[in-house]
Amino acid sequence: EKTRDTFREKLAVITKGKTEIDDDFLEELETILVAADVGVETTLGIVDAITERAKQETYRSEEELNRMLMEEIQQLLEETGEEHPLDFDAPLPAKPYVILIVGVNGAGKTTSVAKLAHNYDKAGKKVIIAAADTFRAAAYEQLQIWADRAGVPMIGQAQGSDPASVVYDAVSAAVSRNADVVLVDTAGRLHNKSHLMEELAKIMRVAKKRIPEAPHEVLLVLDGTTGQNAVLQAREFTKFVKVTGLVVTKLDGTAKGGIVLSISRELKLPVKYIGVGEKIDDLQLFDRAEFVKALLGRELK
Amino acid sequence: MFDSLSDKLEATFKKLAGQATINEINIGLAMRDIKRALLGADVNYKVAKKLIDDIREKSLGEQVIKSVSPAQMIVKIVYDELTELMGGEQKPLNLSPKKLPAVIMVAGLQGSGKTTFCAKLALRLKKSGKQPMLVAADVYRPAAIDQLKALGQQVDVPVFAIEEQDAMKAALQGLEAARSAAKDVVIVDTAGRLQIDQVMMAEAESLKHALKPDELLFVVDSMMGQEAVNTAKAFNDRLDFDGVVLTKLDGDSRGGAALSIRQVVEKPIKFISIGEKVDDLDLFYPDRMAQRILGMGDIVSFVEKA
Ligand SMILES: Nc1nc2c(ncn2[C@@H]2O[C@H](COP(=O)(O)OP(=O)(O)OP(=O)(O)O)[C@@H](O)[C@H]2O)c(=O)[nH]1
Ligand SMILES: Nc1nc2c(ncn2[C@@H]2O[C@H](COP(=O)(O)OP(=O)(O)OP(=O)(O)O)[C@@H](O)[C@H]2O)c(=O)[nH]1
Ligand SMILES: [Mg+2]
Ligand SMILES: [Mg+2]
């Protein structure tokens, strides 16, 4: 990608001819991070860490300064569990493996369900999609189109029915059909609406009735253009369902998704996948180093 | 961690307590806190910087009155400045009474709330005595047409759609259908698009040229961060839209994006979307938005009384 290619260049501009970290450098760094939605607190944390390290280590080249910066920021992402999410063809720890997809309205949940279904299917796994958004206009029709495109079956009920009951049906079907993966699409809900959050907790309980360990994964989908509110989203969703990872969408735009750093710092949630387009192939496993490069590749004026 | 500005300023009040005048030293402290709070509310960093400079200047000026503390004075200045920046008065829709039907076109990023807004606006116009028609010009998103049809049914407004994957054809035929059905306003829903997607931006541009909308509205998610400015600017450069719709304000985002957009593109925010249901629509009031961004309605009224 364009932004990624120019990373060295951009960083070179701010580190050019620097043999120590001065205020100009720190201010530029602060601007880059804040402009990428990293957030003030986390940005100041990173800036402090760099300043601290600079006191202890003398570095000689721009190359070293670049590396130090990358390391510091990656550090924030490192504490959040595994190096990489499992590849789609890796064996799954349970069968059926139930994945619940949650998030606020319009974040990209349904599209992400389709992309995940497609990837698991391609990897030779037997997938079932559960249409547990029984609320939004034409949510069922939308998911049905995606299920057809991915070539996997979908379990659903009429608009207005109980989403927990859809999940129960789907998990039961997965058991009897010997499916490997159940992907549950849920309705968009804002995290400050307690009755909607309770509904999620209920879906969790009902899934457990059929399979005590289910759901094995809960992915919180975040729109990559979201600002500081994303931290509140992550915090609230983790209160009601056991979120195991993040999917950050719409990173094919110019947004950097820097808010992920604050979420890592505060909630230790790993990013597992990123969405980079509207098509079924547009999903990637999260790559920490790539992400940090893209984040810092912000254009400076 | 994301304290509202009022909380931050409380702290600043304390730091400034006992200092009777605003001077270069104490204002530095206050401005740093205000800037951080603005950034925490997702106000664009460039906008925040400029705002801070203005506020600093105003605060050091003559406005200080005896009856309130310098810190309270600063709060009032910040609030007034934000309200002013967001356009002062509420701006209504501007539909030509002569042109039949009047045309409203809706555009924005993916998932921002366009389709839902179209239905809400149709309902609102219907209630005010108009005869609207909805036109489905999003021919890409899976089930976008079904969604608009379902929403149209909920608000009891007819929806025009075609089978073909041709947004221009859908829009123009929709306009024609509205004309022959003697509708007085059409609302055209378009697909979500990224500002860097040249093909899709060109499509929006030609839709605008063909439809000649009375109102081209840019729909934006209030949870958006720093990118809101670049996005709004790119859409405005290309489409020269007439107004902004801010969605999902039933959430708990501070909505600093509103301020940034308003400041950078200088177009009024006309509506706010406050829920998933078809009547969850309201007019935009700059003063209320300023209070939301600052989280400080009570402090403002306190200073006002002083
Ligand atoms: N550019 C881009 N668009 C995306 C991406 N993921 C999803 N979208 C688009 O975002 C919009 C919303 O996506 P959905 O999958 O319907 O989102 P959702 O979270 O299921 O929405 P609700 O169910 O209404 O809450 C659609 O127009 C998608 O095509 C992505 O990675 N990049
Ligand atoms: N809570 C809340 N949800 C909203 C609001 N406006 C829209 N939504 C929801 O946000 C999601 C996306 O809304 P849509 O109207 O489909 O958005 P769109 O911009 O048409 O999406 P695309 O056509 O995919 O680009 C849906 O789940 C809507 O119900 C709002 O003001 N508040
Ligand atoms: Mg959905
Ligand atoms: Mg739509």
Record the SSE blueprint.
The complex is a heterodimer of chains A (301) and B (306).
Chain A: H1 2-5, H2 7-15, H3 23-35, H4 40-56, H5 62-78, E1 97-103, H6 109-122, E2 127-132, H7 139-150, E3 154-155, H8 163-177, E4 181-186, H9 194-210, E5 217-223, H10 229-240, E6 245-249, H11 259-267, E7 271-275, E8 283-285, H12 288-296
Parallel strand pairs in A: 1-4, 1-5, 2-3, 2-4, 5-6, 6-7
Antiparallel strand pairs in A: 7-8
Helix pairs in contact in A: 3-4, 5-12, 6-7, 8-9, 10-11
Chain B: H1 5-16, H2 24-40, H3 45-60, H4 70-85, E1 102-108, H5 114-127, E2 132-137, H6 144-155, E3 159-160, H7 167-180, E4 185-190, H8 198-211, E5 215-221, H9 227-239, E6 243-247, H10 256-265, E7 269-273, E8 281-283, H11 286-294, H12 297-305
Parallel strand pairs in B: 1-4, 1-5, 2-3, 2-4, 5-6, 6-7
Antiparallel strand pairs in B: 7-8
Helix pairs in contact in B: 1-2, 1-4, 2-3, 3-4, 4-11, 4-12, 5-6, 7-8, 9-10
Characteristics of this structure?
heterodimer; A: alpha/beta; 12 helices; disordered N terminus; B: 306 residues; alpha/beta; eight-stranded mixed beta sheet; elongated; binds guanosine-5'-triphosphate; binds magnesium ion
Describe this entry's structure for a reader.
The complex is a heterodimer of chains A (301) and B (306). Chain A is an alpha/beta fold and 301 residues long. Chain A has twelve helices and eight strands. In chain A, helix 3 runs antiparallel to helix 4, helix 8 packs parallel to helix 9 and helix 10 packs parallel to helix 11. The N terminus of chain A is likely disordered. Chain B is an alpha/beta fold. Helix content of chain B is 51%, strand content 13%. Chains A and B meet through helix 3, helix 7 and helix 10 of A and helix 2, helix 6 and helix 9 of B. The structure holds guanosine-5'-triphosphate (2 copies) and magnesium ion (MG) (2 copies). The site of one magnesium ion has 6 residues of chain A, from helix 6.
